[in-house]
Specification:
- This protein is mainly alpha-helical.
- The chain is about 45% helix and about 10% strand.
- A two-stranded antiparallel ribbon has the order 1-2. It has a two-stranded antiparallel sheet with strand order 3-4. Strands 5-6 form a two-stranded antiparallel ribbon.
- The chain starts with about 35 loop residues before the first helix and ends with a helix.
- The N terminus is likely disordered.
Length: about 375
């Protein structure tokens, strides 16, 4: 029987078991020793760790850079810029609103604001106009939008009186009753067409829409309206020379245009109404315009009674010759053009004869009476 060491010099058909001290043994396939294989595995592990560390470092840098960029965008470093107005229309999408904020430079990045909305929730934005500033923080913008429109529209329509405009302005937040009228009569603002010594701005507020900004004073609003009136009137051709060609001052022409506005109803009538006014003035006749009596009574339209015609007022043109002492409303561009360019004609009377607003003009009282009968037959007052 052979012992464990009796190999007779022959190789065993299986690999020799690993034993201590065999690190130098070569791999039969690769020719690598165990220590070489171990070193290779360690090198691969180190390489993987370096790659992971590099990728992690890049990601960390990107995250830090993104966070810094977002913080800079959302906190708007530097002072606020000029005030701007952003108007939100009915049904406008959140993306469109954010786009408007970016275009107006309220925010620098619409993308960053959308991210902010994701974390903080998109504000509920009502239709209307908002006063913001360039370079505002996201939280400030969100607070303003959440609070609702802070700019209020005022519409000065042709035919409005100063008191009707005042009622609109006085009703706005931050404005007190009587404030606009006081500002208009304070003498702080004058039209270029104001007569010397007059602080009355009746008839000299430009028509159209205005957006009243937060904190805007009554004097500022009055000034804006008067400046628009001056610009529009000069553009229409009103000047000392053009008024003098009609025998009037510019202020008198504005007054005539205000009567034309109230008496003419619609633009087609206004040039002929202006001619009637000028013909009556030229013949030293009473103007006898119902609108001036209604102004004296504080009424805007409506019938005039025989008792009304007796009211003691410098605005009652049934009792006083000439134009009323001031305009009686804000004239439209059509009324101003009619007053500046009246057509030729000998008319002295007019009356509404059609429910569509058209009038009949006549040279004699007899013709006027016939037209009045025609109007009554059509159910007109």
């Amino acid at each position: 029987m052979s012992g464990p060491d009796d190999s007779d010099g022959e190789e065993l058909p299986w690999p020799s078991p690993d034993v201590p001290g065999a690190e130098g043994a070569e791999d039969a396939d690769t020719g690598e020793t165990r220590s070489e294989r171990s070193a290779a595995r360690s090198a691969r592990v180190r390489r993987r760790r370096r790659v992971v560390a590099a990728v992690g470092g890049v990601l960390l840098v990107l995250i830090l850079a993104f966070t810094l960029w977002y913080e800079l965008e959302s906190h708007a470093l530097g002072p606020e810029g000029p005030q701007v107005v952003v108007t939100v229309h009915e049904g406008e999408s959140t993306d469109a609103i954010i786009g408007s904020l970016s275009q107006q430079h309220v925010i620098d990045s619409s993308f960053a604001f959308r991210i902010s909305d994701f974390f903080h929730g998109a504000p509920t934005v009502l239709p209307g106009s908002y006063a913001l500033h360039e370079n505002q923080t996201f939280s400030e913008v969100r607070a303003i939008l959440d609070a609702g429109p802070n700019i209020y529209p005022i519409d000065v329509r042709p035919g409005f009186t100063l008191s009707e405009v005042a009622a609109q302005v006085d009703s706005l937040p931050g404005h007190a009753e009587g404030g606009f009228t006081s500002a208009a009569r304070s003498g702080a603002v004058h039209s270029v067409f104001s007569p010397p010594g007059s602080n009355d701005l009746e008839g000299m507020l430009g028509t159209g829409s205005y957006l009243i900004l937060p904190g805007e004073s009554d004097v500022t609003i009055v000034r804006d309206m008067v400046q628009r009136f001056d610009h529009d009137s000069e553009s229409a051709g009103l000047s000392t020379a053009s008024a003098a060609a009609l025998g009037l001052t510019p202020y008198q022409l504005i007054t005539a245009a205000s009567v034309v506005e109230k008496e003419g109803y619609i633009p087609v009538n206004m040039p002929d109404v202006a001619r009637v006014i000028y013909n009556r003035l030229a013949q030293d006749m009473l103007l006898q315009m119902d609108s001036t009596v209604l102004y004296a009574l504080g009424h805007d339209g409506g019938p005039v009674t025989s008792q009304d015609l007796k009211v003691e007022s410098p605005y009652n043109t049934y009792l006083n010759k000439g134009l009323p002492p001031t305009p009686i409303c804000m004239p439209s561009a059509d009324a101003m053009d009619a007053a500046l360019h009246p057509p030729p004609g000998a008319w002295l009377y007019f009356v509404l004869v059609n429910k569509n607003g058209t009038m009949a003009f006549s040279d004699t009282y007899a013709e006027q009476q016939a037209n009045e009968q025609l109007a009554k037959s059509r159910g007109l007052p």
